From TrEMBL:
This is Aspartokinase. SUPFAM superfamilies: ACT-like (SSF55021), Carbamate kinase-like (SSF53633). It catalyses: L-aspartate + ATP = 4-phospho-L-aspartate + ADP. The gene is lysC. GO terms for cellular component: cytosol.
């Protein structure tokens, strides 16, 4: 007998028929003798619909009230799934995040889980119930409802698995695992049988929304056995999906590059003609940091005649605010020639632990993009990833070109393996 946490995403919960299928799958695991905790998301489109209603009534709704509104989507789902389980003779009890209690900090709309009280869940499991816990939601110390950020039910699932010391956390979604890139963009993308935790963390943080980044962080911190699978296979399917592995217990051969992530979340800003002298980066980015705006990539060019250009990226939602700060405060203070920006950019990233041991990956990447006429505007690298900023309209082309150049559609061959 194992203790399994199963999270089902919005599409998996999208209609009464889909919920019935989820119930059947849960029943199968119960019949096999397992204890099951289920974490459903809101029905597909429901969270967007709820947030849309709020914005219709107020263009700048308070984050506290947004959480009150958005959290109802998951509350409906736990009730519906529970009655669907009852209908096929499975004992089940539902709990909201607040009832459990999933305690979070008070950062409304992007709260972090601090602790989970698992006492009631354990009691119900021992009494033979399936326990259905609402994803995406929690409660802060003063009793206010919080939500965990978009895609946050993944994190509820993994955090519950960690708290309960579950044998496995299964994330059921509308694809049957983690692919070399989003199969919606590259139909030839290949499913990965395993992906290391570190690679998954990079892929998630660089834009692959198949898992919310915090769920991957949780899995790493508490060594949760995490698997991504499809809820659209036959309920008796034994397909194993993709397992997130930890390098320590990884002795399988791995490809140099595992995947490609991409996002359109950023905007690029360049401060032109700034004096090349000590303290200039601080003069530019200090006021940006003071406004609580995160900066991602940064480039400073070599100077000519004592002047240089300084470029960086911020989240697209912060683009206007950053431009205003630079125009009003930074430009006059450092006597820069000008400030220009572009919020129609995309970041495309190659991820793989093999980059640690293999030279020439970045060069091959740039060569492939050049071959198809994709201009690279910015580059950033770390141990296991290389990212480039390109014009948004070339994003999908860049992803496809790189997928082909690194033969990610093919099983890794001997030459393609890490030593
Ligand atoms: P859910 O509602 O089940 O949480 P999401 O839409 O959040 O589902 O995540 C699943 C989607 O993630 C897939 O439909 C797919 O388009 C997208 N995706 C992005 N990158 C990848 C990837 N590397 N592998 C698999 N799916 C990916
Ligand atoms: N329903 C929430 C969202 O749409 C949480 C989730 O689906 O994981 O973001
Ligand atoms: Mg999701």
């Amino acid at each position: 007998m194992a203790l399994i946490v199963q999270k089902y995403g919005g599409t998996s919960m999208g209609s009464p028929e889909r919920i019935r299928e989820v119930a059947k799958r849960v029943a199968r695991f119960v019949k096999e003798g397992h204890q099951v905790v289920v974490v459903p998301s809101a029905m597909a489109g429901e969270t967007n619909r709820l947030l849309g209603l709020a914005r219709e009534l107020n263009p700048e709704p308070s984050p506290r009230e947004l959480d009150v509104i958005a959290s109802t989507g998951e509350q409906v789902s736990i009730g519906l799934l529970s009655v669907a389980l009852h209908a096929i003779g499975v004992k089940a009890k539902s709990y909201t995040g607040f009832q459990v209690k999933i305690l979070t900090d008070d950062a409304h709309t992007k709260a972090r889980i601090l602790s989970i009280d698992d006492a009631n869940i354990r009691k119900d499991l021992v009494a033979g119930n399936v326990v259905v816990v609402a994803g995406f939601q929690g409660i802060e110390a003063n009793g206010n409802i919080t939500t965990l950020g978009r895609g946050g039910s993944d994190t509820t699932g993994v955090a519950l698995a960690a708290a309960l010391n579950a044998d496995e956390c299964q994330i059921y979604t509308d694809v049957d695992g983690v692919y070399s890139t989003d199969p919606r963009v590259v139909p030839e993308a290949r499913r990965l049988a395993t992906v290391t935790f570190e690679e998954m963390l990079e892929l998630a943080s660089l834009g692959s929304k198949v898992l919310q980044i915090r769920s991957v962080e949780f899995a790493g911190k508490y060594k949760v056995k995490l698997r991504v699978l499809s809820s659209f296979t036959d309920v008796n399917s034994t397909d194993m999906g993709t397992l997130i592995t930890f390098e320590e217990d990884e002795n399988m051969e791995q490809a140099i590059i595992s995947g490609i992530a991409f996002n359109r979340d950023e905007a690029k800003i360049t401060v032109l003609g700034v004096p090349d002298k000590p303290g200039i980066a601080y003069s530019i980015l200090g006021p940006v940091a003071d406004a609580n705006i995160d900066v991602d990539m940064i480039i400073q060019n070599a100077s000519t005649e004592g002047l240089t250009d300084f470029s960086f990226t911020v989240h697209r939602a912060e683009y206007k605010r950053t431009m205003e700060i630079l125009e009003s405060k930074v430009k006059p203070a450092i006597k820069a020639r000008g400030v220009v920006g572009d919020d129609k950019i995309a970041k495309v990233s190659l991820v793989g632990i093999g980059m640690r041991t293999h030279a020439g990956i970045a060069a091959k990447m740039f060569g492939a993009l050049a071959g198809d006429g994709v201009n690279i505007q910015m580059i950033s690298t770390s141990e296991i990833k290389t990212s480039v900023v390109v014009d948004e309209k070339y994003m999908e082309l860049a992803v496809r070109v790189l997928h082909k150049a690194f033969e990610l559609d093919k099983e890794p061959t001997q030459e393609n393996m890490k030593p």
